[in-house]
């Protein structure tokens, strides 16, 4: 272990696995936005390049790629496990302003068009969904993070139910709700919103009632990955944050408080990057062994694997 780069804290130590995720010569990554892991610890990376989904095994061996229809629109990326054990991928495509559900091999099962809300959207007020998640009952929630800062609620078939939010900083209002996920750690499911430009997490009921804020230890939170009692958040300002079951800080991973202050960030010279420091984390997931995978918002992509030591 002494020859490896180790990051983390006493309870959460990780070895940086350099060079993880080798691509064939004919595939080049664009901005790496979302990252997911399935029940067999296969890693799905969503990026803005041509074959926009690239799949690896946990050792970083390339398995396959697909997703040309999402080229240029990669953003929110979510793997949902149904109660019957089936796994599906959900995409929030910013370029096409659409939500798409697929199989793990890319077969399209559902498309959700922009909500029919002329009171919220028109030629000047755009709808630009940035993330999507699914509740235990199959209901689908979409965050309009780059549009009008609303959350939209649909049933499992994609039929519209309700919306809430809108721009602002008061309880229930949002400013770039960039990421959205379902918290299942308590007795009742809750929605966690990465209220990024307000620099906080905002927690709602599944019906859209504001419940509370999580405002400490945030630095432009992008999205969420729940693993056991913990939640992992990529902070765009150059770190990954881990919170405990009470949303209190456990540790920051790979923190570099100088990266986002550099000229031309996030597309910094390659000489700047270090394997044990992040620049612009955008997506995170955790495999069955507790290993962490981080994708960064960088023009030619960057994916890091952190191997859990304790």
TrEMBL record:
Signal peptide: none
Keywords: Repeat
Stored InterPro entries: 6-blade_b-propeller_TolB-like (IPR011042), NHL_repeat (IPR001258), TRIM-NHL_E3_ligases (IPR050952)
Claim: Repeat is one of the keywords in the record: yes
Gene3D superfamilies: TolB, C-terminal domain
Residue windows of the NHL repeats: 165-207
Name of the protein described by the UniProt record: NHL repeat containing protein
Organism annotation: Paenibacillus glycanilyticus
């Amino acid at each position: 272990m002494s020859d490896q780069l180790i990051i983390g804290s006493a309870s959460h130590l990780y070895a940086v696995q350099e060079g993880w995720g080798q691509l064939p010569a004919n595939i080049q990554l664009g901005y790496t936005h979302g990252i997911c892991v399935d029940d067999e610890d296969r890693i799905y990376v969503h990026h803005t390049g041509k074959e926009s989904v690239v799949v690896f095994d946990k050792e970083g061996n390339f398995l396959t790629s697909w997703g040309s229809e999402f080229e240029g629109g990669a953003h929110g990326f979510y793997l949902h496990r149904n109660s019957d054990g089936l796994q599906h991928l959900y995409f929030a495509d910013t370029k096409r302003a659409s939500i798409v559900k697929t199989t793990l091999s890319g077969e399209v099962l559902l498309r959700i068009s922009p909500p029919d809300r002329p009171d919220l959207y028109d030629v000047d007020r755009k709808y630009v969904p940035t993330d999507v998640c699914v509740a235990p009952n199959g209901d689908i929630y979409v965050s309009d993070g780059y549009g009008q800062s609303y959350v939209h609620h649909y049933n499992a078939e994609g039929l519209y139910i309700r919306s809430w939010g809108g721009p602002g900083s008061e309880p229930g209002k949002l400013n770039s709700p960039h990421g959205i996920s379902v918290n299942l750690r308590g007795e009742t499911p809750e929605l966690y919103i990465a209220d990024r430009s307000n620099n906080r997490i905002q927690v709602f009921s599944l019906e859209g009632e504001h419940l509370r804020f999580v405002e400490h230890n945030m630095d432009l939170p992008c999205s969420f990955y729940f693993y056991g009692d913990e939640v992992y958040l990529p902070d765009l300002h150059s770190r990954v944050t881990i919170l405990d079951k009470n949303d209190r800080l456990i540790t920051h991973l790979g923190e570099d408080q100088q990266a986002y202050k550099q000229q031309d960030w996030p597309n910094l010279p390659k000489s700047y990057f270090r394997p044990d420091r992040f620049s612009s984390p955008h997506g995170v997931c955790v495999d069955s062994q507790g290993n962490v995978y981080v994708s960064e918002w960088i023009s030619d992509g960057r994916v890091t694997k952190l191997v859990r030591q304790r």
